[in-house]
Amino acid sequence: xxxxxxxxxxxxxxxxxxALKQLAxxxxxxxxxxxxxxxxxFIQHFSQTKVSLAKQAYLNQTLSxxxxxxxxxxxxxxxxxxxxxxxxxxxxxxxxxxDIGRSVHPGSDEAKQWLALQLAYPQIRFHSASSNxxxxxxxxxxxxxxxxxxxxxxxxxxxxxxIAEPLAILHQLPKAPSNLSPxxxxxxxxxxxxxxxxxxQAACNHLEHYFSTTAASHYKQTRNALSGxxxxxxxxxxxxxxxxxxxxxxxxxxxxxxxxxxxxxxxxIYFELLWREYFYWYARAHGSKLFSFSGVNGKTLHxxxxxxxxxxxxxxxxxxxxxxxLMHQLNSSGWxxxxxxxxxxxxxxxxxxxxxxxxxxxxEQRLIDYDVASNWGxxxxxxxxxxxxxxxxxFDIDKQSKMFDPNKQFIKRWQGELxxxxxxxxxxxxxxx
Length: 433
Ligand SMILES: Cc1cc2nc3c(=O)[nH]c(=O)nc-3n(C[C@H](O)[C@H](O)[C@H](O)COP(=O)(O)OP(=O)(O)OC[C@H]3O[C@@H](n4cnc5c(N)ncnc54)[C@H](O)[C@@H]3O)c2cc1C
Prior knowledge:
The longest helix is centred in the middle third of the chain and has 23 residues, at 264-286. The N and C termini lie far apart (60 Å). The chain folds into 3 domains: 3-131, Rossmann fold, CATH 3.40.50; 200-289, Serine Threonine Protein Phosphatase 5, Tetratricopeptide repeat (Alpha Horseshoe); 307-430, Orthogonal Bundle (DNA Cyclobutane Dipyrimidine Photolyase, subunit A, domain 3). Helix 2 (41-47) crosses helix 15. It contains 18 helices and 5 strands. By secondary structure, the chain is of the alpha/beta class. Residues 223, 232-236, 239-240, 269, 272-273, 275-276, 279, 337-338, 341-342, 345, 363, 367, 369-371, 374-375, 378-379, 382 line the site of flavin-adenine dinucleotide.
């Protein structure tokens, strides 16, 4: 009798989940668990804040939907809180777990945890598979240690590679052991950001809706907007939690192109999915360097920590109305457009000269689509310690406001003018670093 423990993380779906399918095929009984991990001291320190209500609510909604998907296959989801190793150890102690499965995770802490489990329990069989990338590692035409240092050479080498179809529909999972009591109901916080649907079914519905419109055929012209109906795909919260797989998204895109014809815009959705893919492999290749001040290229930056400036930025209380509006949007909804993220990140690093990791950690605690690879990879890119061949990006906030918010509608909607406190006046040259 083999008893499997499947640990969900950023793969909160039952369909097209290779790791779940692999474990399910090896065991007679199965327990499904999600471990809501305690925030690390690193993130506590750099973010200077807790996980936001919007982010927590979105996660809970995703987990509640995952539980429903599992219920349809005769399974249920147990949610645990605390340290990963401790929570897994409790299951191993209480049940005769013979096999443990999880999807490969791009985060270095998660990779370490997985390795530590394997070392601690040599009697258990471990199963993992990629559930969150378009490509398999063995398909890449280079060794991970030789990952191209910037996106364009990566894209050129991979964009024509064949991508596996999503897996066939899963109709059944092994049953849970009979001595397992029913999972407690999942509590949904009262605050719920209604703009964003969560979970596998909603992801399917959203894919269908998006591609039932002609938005994909105009994506390249609209994608840089700050807000609006379907100006960008809105797939990221689903992708980040794994409510949908990138292969399912790509399949829907290819079906759309077969029906309506491919154009530069529809190609650009694939192009952006390749950016996501690049950062996935970038995180896998660089491990904990993803979180280091001088990034993956070891560059020395002249930024530091200025608590007042950071607080102003977080609260949307700077001298830049557009930045304020964007931060208000993030704080209230847990989401921000790609252009918005680039502008506020550039402002923190270049105008306010704050160490980029404070911004990245703050995003981690706030974004409902937080993804370790895309977040920290993009922050490194803007700060100039990552994959940008031009050595970082400095956005002219005035110019960006004129281009993307000419009538100040966005600033008005998110009350950007309310801020405007001048930053502290200490010259950074005099600051004791
Ligand atoms: C500082 C900063 C931090 C970011 N943090 C995150 C994060 O934590 N999680 C996250 O998913 N994305 C992050 N991004 C990337 C991007 O902003 C979001 O993926 C995008 O805004 C999500 O909206 P969408 O799904 O409508 O995107 P679309 O424009 O419709 O793009 C389609 C998909 O392509 C991928 N994609 C698009 N742009 C990027 C990009 N620059 N990098 C990686 N993947 C991309 C996403 O999976 C997205 O869902 C960050 C960007 C910046 C500049």
